[in-house]
Write a structure and sequence with these properties.
seven-stranded mixed sheet, single chain, alpha+beta, Four Helix Bundle (Hemerythrin (Met), subunit A), 561 residues
């Protein structure tokens, strides 16, 4: 599955749209990233740009736009309301999908080193990418702003993490970091009272509210023996909140910034706000997501509410997100379309799902056409996806079978694992065809000179290796489905035992079919050590799959007599 990083560089130009476009054009030139948003501000004279992509592509795009900003922005003439110290003022990277913060830090520091070495810009690493604890806070790095850079760079304690300790009048300095995703999220209330919305905000936000003498609203704020104000923290960590009235909607809202959704996810903020509102005689009517959200945040919310209902979480991604939307009331004020709000959906390329996006009839017709792809490898992966889908269906039926209520979590776990295998196998349906196309492209490379022949030969070998790896992955994933299929035959809903049996037939056929592709694609491959290793493992999987199918079918026949 793709690793995705979001990058949100802030440029010290918010008025000249031509200059801004020159910068964003550099981002759009890089394959593997997608520009999601560009938000210029005239008063701040600052533009916030958002793009997402695979890690290496994001680093490349970030470097390109930082370089262009260095060329087209003159900091010696810059004025604006927002604190700043560089042409590209800050450049945070945020882990979005299938990547950890630790991995994201590596890419942020890689970018920082390149900017310092190749562009000669003083670079300070902040937040999770900081090398020095005092530099974690962005405000510390930016203190003194552009006007104070000459003095700052002369101070040995503020030597840049990368790049020279040299003042660049046109460019200034830059802060590059890695931070958590920030979600802007509003809770809708059945009141018009800003004061009551604020009370709920103080209940939930990490900062909480000041402790007062006498009257809890108007009383004097208490102080400790050192003269510091005493505050009572709120219920949620990594949460900032305030109440306000929205004239457009005619209601009050609790406006929330969730600064780390791994600590306080969206659904926890919603549930806590509901609890606090209820204590004050109010009711939450729904909520509103501002900007974009990672898919995982929606999946976590949907699964939370499904578990609360004691329902299986092993349903399709679309169903989980639908539950999240309805449970959070995201369509309370206006229609909510996940395809327009979830980052990963905005990045989807229809070509990546050419086959699995077809109807069943369309896939059959495409397979039956005169084109050599899709072929046996794609069909094997698809058969395997059908096999595990049948087992997942049995798990879901078992999870809400009458009289089995206490076992819903057991079957939910099987269904969730089945959905994961299904999604991986569906990915391999199209990936097998892409692997075939890579071989065809490699054979189409020029071979007029010795240098071109060498490049062509290496490309053919690389493509062939991948064409072996893809069906081998299909074999392993198809074989993994046997454990779930067998469990459903043995312990699942007895009315669906034959469905699980058909799943075993599919899994065994998929393993054999993928094995045939491993063998045929390996013909002529020069790396014998790699090929021998794969062949041994593939043959072991082949025999194990045959035995697993025989065992499962015997169990099915025993149950149906």
């Amino acid at each position: 599955m793709k690793q995705l990083i979001e990058c949100v560089p802030n440029f010290s130009e918010g008025r000249d749209l031509h200059v801004i476009k020159l910068i964003t054009d550099e981002i759009e030139k890089i394959e593997g990233v997608k520009l999601l948003d560009c938000d210029p501000g005239a008063a701040t004279n600052r533009t916030v740009v958002t793009f997402v992509g695979t890690p290496d592509a994001v680093v490349e795009a970030a470097f390109a736009c930082i370089k262009k900003a260095m060329e087209v922005i003159d900091m010696s003439r810059h004025k604006g309301e927002h604190p700043r110290f560089g042409a590209t003022d800050v450049c945070p990277m945020i882990p979005i999908s299938n990547i950890t913060m630790e991995e994201t830090v590596v890419y942020a520091r890689k970018l920082a080193e390149r900017v310092g070495n190749e562009l000669g810009i003083p670079v300070y690493c902040y937040e999770n990418a900081a090398f020095i604890p005092e530099r974690r806070n962005l405000a510390n790095n930016r203190s003194g702003e552009y006007e104070g850079l000459t003095k700052k760079l002369a101070d040995p304690q503020w030597k840049p993490d990368f790049g020279p300790a040299q003042f660049l009048p046109r460019t200034g300095a830059i802060a590059i970091g890695a931070r958590d995703f920030l979600v802007a999220y509003n809770i809708n209330l059945n009141t018009t009272s800003t004061r009551r919305a604020n009370a709920i905000a103080f209940d939930i936000r990490e900062k909480g509210r000041p402790v007062r003498e006498g009257n809890p609203v108007t009383g004097k704020i208490k102080k400790d023996e050192n003269g510091h104000e005493i505050w009572e923290p709120g219920a949620l960590k990594a949460c900032k909140a305030i109440g306000w009235f929205i004239e457009e909607y005619g209601i009050a809202q609790v406006s929330i910034n969730l600064t780390n959704i791994t600590i306080t996810p969206v659904h926890l903020a919603f549930e806590t706000a509901c609890e606090m509102a209820g204590k004050r005689g109010l009711r939450v009517t729904g909520s509103e997501l501002i900007g974009l959200v990672p898919k995982q945040a929606m999946l976590d919310a949907g699964k939370y509410f499904l578990k609360k209902q004691q329902r299986s979480v092993g349903v399709s991604e679309e169903e989980i997100i639908k539950i999240a939307v309805k449970s959070l009331g995201l369509d309370d004020l206006k229609p909510f379309n996940p395809r327009e709000k979830v980052i990963e959906y905005l990045l989807e390329n229809p070509a990546d799902k050419k086959l699995v996006g077809m109807t069943a009839e369309g896939f059959a017709n495409e397979t039956a056409s005169e084109s050599p792809a899709p072929g046996g490898g794609s069909v094997a992966a698809y058969i395997a996806s059908l096999g595990i889908s049948l087992a997942t269906m049995v798990a879901n039926l078992s999870s809400h079978k009458a009289g089995w209520d206490e076992r819903w979590e057991e079957f939910s776990a099987y269904a969730e694992a089945g959905q994961k295998l299904k999604d991986e196998l569906l990915y391999l349906v199209d990936e097998d065809t892409r692997a075939f196309n890579r071989i065809m492209d490699a054979f189409g490379l020029p071979k007029a000179s010795d240098a071109e022949k060498a490049v062509r030969t290496q490309a053919i070998q690389d493509a062939t290796k991948y064409a072996i790896e893809v069906p081998f992955r299909t074999m392993k994933k198809a074989y993994d489905s046997f454990s779930i299929i067998k469990a459903m035959v043995e312990t699942g809903n007895p009315n669906s035992v034959t469905d699980a049996g058909v799943g075993a037939l599919c899994a065994r056929s998929a393993v054999i079919g993928a094995y045939l592709n491993v063998k045929v694609n390996g013909a002529g491959f020069k790396d014998k050590e790699f090929l021998d290793k794969v062949t041994v493992e593939a043959e072991a999987l082949l025999e194990s799959a045959k035995l697993a199918e025989t065992e499962i079918l015997a169990l099915v026949m025993a149950k149906i007599g």
